[in-house]
């Protein structure tokens, strides 16, 4: 197995001066992201170090091989989900720039306001993550819900926006008031970045 060592990305400095999402929250959140990067690399090293005997003992109830494979997917999900999340924060929020993304949102949700209401309700319902994704099998945008870093993968769906709904994303600032955090999330979105992600969907 080839090891691909991952390095944590550097995000825009604007994420440290957002309205409604404090620098303290961002600092702690980035430490968590770095932890996912570290564990992803560590688990790869452990997998490469397994013996033929370890592979022979692999089974679905419990084995070191199964454990490492499962936790690798959790760590990788933690890396990628956070990279999408932080990459489109630090913007000015507001309405999506005029363009193909706005037209697609209006086509699939009826209006931009309807899209926001659906995303917020999905965020209130999720235990871990929400993704606005382009389902290129159905050719539509949809807000998908996930309860952990590595659960609820959706085939043929390319995420263009990620909303972290774990408590660590908002508890310092809002306590249990997740709805206000989601409102702040909208206020700090860089829609141009989301539009870029949407434009990249055809390269999947």
TrEMBL record:
Gene3D superfamilies on file: Fe,Mn superoxide dismutase (SOD) domain, Iron/manganese superoxide dismutase, C-terminal domain
Catalysed transformations (reactions): 2 superoxide + 2 H(+) = H2O2 + O2
GO MF term set: metal ion binding; superoxide dismutase activity
Keyword Metal-binding found: yes
Pfam family for this entry, one: Sod_Fe_N
Residue intervals of the Manganese/iron superoxide dismutase N-terminal domain: 21-89
Superkingdom of origin organism: Bacteria
Record-listed E.C. numbers: 1.15.1.1
Boundaries of every Manganese/iron superoxide dismutase C-terminal domain copy: 97-197
Binding, Mn(2+): 29, 82, 164, 168
This protein's UniProt keywords: Metal-binding, Oxidoreductase
SUPFAM superfamilies assigned: Fe,Mn superoxide dismutase (SOD), C-terminal domain (SSF54719), Fe,Mn superoxide dismutase (SOD), N-terminal domain (SSF46609)
Family: Belongs to the iron/manganese superoxide dismutase family.
General function of this protein: Destroys radicals which are normally produced within the cells and which are toxic to biological systems.
Name assigned to this protein: Superoxide dismutase
Organism expressing this protein natively: Candidatus Roizmanbacteria bacterium GW2011_GWC2_37_13
């Amino acid at each position: 197995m080839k090891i691909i060592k991952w390095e944590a990305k550097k995000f825009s400095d604007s994420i440290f001066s957002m309205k409604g999402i404090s620098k303290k929250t961002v600092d702690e959140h980035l430490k968590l992201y770095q932890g996912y990067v570290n564990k992803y690399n560590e688990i790869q090293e452990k997998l490469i170090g397994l013996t033929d005997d370890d592979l022979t003992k692999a089974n679905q109830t419990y084995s070191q091989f199964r454990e490492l494979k499962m936790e690798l997917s959790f760590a990788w999900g933690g890396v990628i989900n956070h990279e999408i999340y932080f990459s489109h924060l630090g913007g000015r929020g507001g309405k999506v720039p005029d363009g193909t993304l706005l037209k697609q949102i209006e086509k699939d949700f009826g209006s931009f306001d309807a899209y926001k209401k659906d995303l917020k309700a999905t965020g209130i319902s999720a235990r871990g993550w929400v993704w606005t994704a382009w389902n290129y099998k159905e050719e539509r945008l949809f807000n998908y819900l996930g309860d952990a870093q590595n659960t609820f993968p959706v085939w043929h769906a390319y995420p263009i926006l990620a909303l972290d709904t774990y408590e660590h994303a908002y508890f310092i600032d809002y306590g249990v008031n997740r709805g206000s955090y989601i409102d702040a999330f909208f206020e700090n979105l860089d829609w141009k970045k989301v539009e870029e992600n949407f434009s990249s969907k055809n390269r999947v």
